[in-house]
Amino acid sequence: MKSKKSDGASPAVVTVGKPDPKQHINNPIQFIIPAQVDENHILKPIILWPDRLSSIQAAAYLGCAPYTIRRSRQTGKLAGVAAPKYRKQGKTVVYEKVWLDEWKTQFEPQYNTAQNVA
């Protein structure tokens, strides 16, 4: 993903993909997303998550693979603890963002790996 530099919190033009010679498409897809510049002057996109997430979105939000979150619904465990709540709407699985945030709060922040030693 390429992006142009910007100052402060402002929209950025992001280019996704590259030209496909087989389809004679010379222009990759471009769209505008909200972004901000961090302390190192690097443009970072601001990700706005919806209130309800699909399995794939929930996996991205939690930082795991989609297979892992699907498997957690069968085993009841994710990252060694009880899996987050979800809702079935017909065949569709939906995770409420609030439930995922609650699930994430059970993990204490760590500053180094020495904290893992009991």
Would you mind describing this structure in some detail?
The protein has 118 residues and is of the alpha+beta class. The chain has two domains: 44 residues, no CATH class; 53 residues. The chain is 22% helix and 30% strand. The strands form three sheets. The chain has a four-stranded antiparallel beta sheet, with no helix packed on it. Strand 6 and strand 7 form a beta hairpin. The longest helix is centred in the middle third of the chain and has 10 residues. The chain is flat and about 45 Å long. It starts with a strand and ends in a 14-residue tail after the last helix.
The tally of strands reads 9
Number of helical segments? 3
How far do the termini sit from each other? 41 Å
Unreliably modeled segments: 1-7, 24-29
Keywords:
118 residues; alpha+beta; 2 domains; 4-stranded antiparallel sheet; 3-stranded antiparallel sheet; 9 strands; 30% strand; disordered N terminus
Please write out the topology:
Layout: E1 2-3, E2 10-16, E3 29-37, E4 43-45, E5 52-53, H1 55-62, H2 66-75, E6 77-78, E7 81-82, E8 87-89, E9 92-96, H3 97-104
Antiparallel strand pairs: 1-2, 2-3, 3-4, 5-9, 6-7, 8-9
Brief overview, please?
This protein is of the alpha+beta class. The protein contains three helices and nine strands; from the N terminus they run βββββααββββα. It has two domains: 2-45, no CATH class; 52-104.
